[in-house]
Amino acid sequence: MKLDRLLSIVILLVNRRFVQAKELAELFEVSVRTIYRDIDVLNQAGIPVISYQGAGGGIGLSEGYRLDRSVLTDGELVEIVNALQSVSTIYPDRNRKLLLEKMKSVVPPSQSEQFQLRTRQLIVDLSPWGGSGHLEEKAALLKKAAEEERLVEFAYCDAQGNESARVVEPYTLVLKRQSWYLYAYCRTRKGFRLFKLFRMKSIAVGERFAVRRPIEPERLPWNEQWQAPGKTTRLKLRFSRRARHLAEEWFGVEAIVAETAGEDGEERYVVWAEFPEDRWLYGFILSFGPDAEVLEPESIREEIRRQAAGILRKYDTQT
């Protein structure tokens, strides 16, 4: 921890002309006395840290001191900073903030303005509209549990509405289409599972687990599970003209096929897609209202008809 703090202090001093000792102490959650001891260690290591007295003074580096940036090109630095800034929109993390400082510190002052412009040309904000503080807390808690290899207990409600108690070994946090998931080995079900964070409650972190089971994240095992034979159903959907933009948003422009206009003369569009058949799929189809129609398979078409009739009965009842 001390070595990380020393390196982070150097990075901050490279990026700023002066930093107050009190500010560093608050950032690293140590005393001002500890910061001054760190400064002495840095000086002994040959890093020229200087204390500037008076108003506007503070701790700084000798003029002209820079970090070696020969390993990365300008374009690579921009890509790394953009990626870090994007991830930081999901939940705050002090270590990530310090890493951003490290990346920016290797840019020469003469190129700083141009570098800032390039890192603002692409903004990826992964946070939901209005924010989601409780989700950020869950993600941070589970990330720490995975890092420390600790068991996690929670109550889980699956896509069918069934609730069960789970004990898992957490491995990977997955962000998939604006939803957070935990990929973990479930001791309750004796296998790897994908858990949606929004469906997890009463989370408690427990003892360490002895053996970390081998997984291959590069194979995207969550995709393999979703696409496994028998897991998905092939759908044929028809969209009205006014819902074409929604179909394009969900399935892509290339997947939309224009259909011969019906008797009413209105343009219609057909999409083929594959989804697991569950309550989420029914809700997804119903969310388009009268602008989407299931053409195949007949079983899902009948289920949507049944649920729509149930909705109509509920709203047609006099209260």
The number of distinct helices, counting runs of at least 4 residues, comes to 11
**Which percent band covers the strand fraction?**
15-25%
Mean pLDDT: 80
Helix amount: 25-40%
**What is the overall shape?**
elongated
Major sheet: size, sense and barrel closure?
A: 5 strands, antiparallel
Low confidence ranges: none
Strand order of the largest sheet: 6-5-4-3-7
Number of strand elements: 11
Report the order of strands and helices: HHHEEHHHHEEEEEHEHEEHEH
How far the N terminus sits from the C terminus, by CA atoms, comes to 65 Å
Alpha-beta content class: alpha+beta
Query: From the alpha-carbon coordinates, what is the Rg to the nearest angstrom?
Result: 27 Å
What does this structure look like?
This protein has 319 residues and is α+β, with helices and mostly antiparallel strands. The chain has helices at 2-15, 21-28, 32-44, 74-88, 94-105, 112-118, 133-147, 221-226, 244-251, 279-286, 298-316; strands spanning 49-52, 58-61, 150-157, 163-176, 179-186, 191-196, 200-208, 233-240, 257-259, 268-275, 292-296. The chain contains eleven helices and eleven strands. The strands form three sheets. Strands 6-5-4-3-7 form a five-stranded antiparallel sheet. It is elongated. 14% of the residues are buried. The model has no long low-confidence stretch (mean pLDDT 80).
